[in-house]
Amino acid sequence: MTTADQPTKPPSADTLRRAAIAMQTRDxxxxxxxxxxxxxxxxxxxxxxxxxxxxxxxxxxVDLVRGDRHENPHIKALTAxxxxxxxxxxxxxxxxxxxxYPTPELLSRHVNPADYDGRPYALVLALGGSQLDFRPFDxxxxxxxxxxxxxxxxxxxxxxxxxxxxxxxxxxxDPLVLGRFGFCHSQPDxxxxxxxxxxxxxxxxxxxxxxxxxxxLSGEFRLHPGFEAAIHGSWNLGHSIFDAFLExxxxxxxxxxxxxxxxxxxxxxxxxxxxxxGFLIRPTQRELHAxxxxxxxxxxxxxxxxxxxxLDKHIRGTSEDGKPMVQPKGSITxxxxxxxxxxxxxxSSVATDIINSMRHIAKLRSKPAHTHQKDAFDARxxxxxxELILEAYAAVHNLRLVFQLHPTARAHEVPAWLDSxxxxxx
Length: 426
Description:
About 40% of the residues lie in helices and about 15% in strands. It has about 425 residues and is an alpha+beta fold. Strands 4, 5, 6, 7, 8 and 9 form a six-stranded antiparallel sheet that branches. A three-stranded antiparallel sheet has the order 1-3-2. Strand 7 and strand 8 (about 190-195) form a beta hairpin.
């Protein structure tokens, strides 16, 4: 009898048992609602289980996720530990109470991509991707939802959400619920992009997954630190510079009232961000000009003349034909005069910088308001906007510090985060 004619040796009972564990793990993962792991408690508690799991890990058929790096072992939140680390923990800690997951190597042999047609992000998880991995997208991907009144679009420059308004269900558009997205930055140039977790992308309907796929970016991106903190359950996300700007204005108005005056700014900013007051989505000249207009409305345009009760609010002189002339002072000029007369600063350049910044923004606002320019698309508009909000923020921040010099404000405590490093400028 030749070697080829010899009967094939049947697999051992140990081999069959381990193969059954691997297939049970695979099936549990692919048929579960959220690509969940197989809890170890679901397996028969036999004396060989620890050694079976050890061999399956070494053979790259399963991974053991313990819940020590992420609190929920029932989803594969992060990439599994390296094999050596899994085996070390198994030796030192035993099986524990984690879950088994099929490895990408095993899934690649059993997953049919056609079963996930139109759902590229669900396919990534089906092939063993990590749920808290993210994909970067062009900021323009948000424009459709921001401009469509059928969606509730909320964002704070760290994270946001998009929810379909149920009253429009009859229009035939697939309702979208993206309860969470955030931001990331390209490396090393720090261009802002949208970041969406694979966990959230995978649950979208095919047409919606295709929308995001069209805007996906390539290259290296890192999550915004505030959004990364939120993903891992932290409440200390920091604050956007836009929120800091608005809160500085609020604090100035609070101190104005403590001084016994009308508030310096006409508008007490409501809780929540005014629409459009944030980083540009589409870097166009038109969007930048709209932002400049809004910024001026919050600054020089918002100054309340009634605050300056002791000042003459008019410029008096003589016209060219010799007649007396009286005209109202501009709001920024009133602030300049008040800072010069009522406030004694050791460094007068502080007041000069505040006024110059307000006038710079007012000048930029007047240009698009009185000229017609063809729209343009250029990434440099993102840099210009960032420089403007930094300048405006510095102006109101320093103005608030000036107001705090007033005797009636000495006992007033501003929110601690305004004077911390927890203000994000990107």
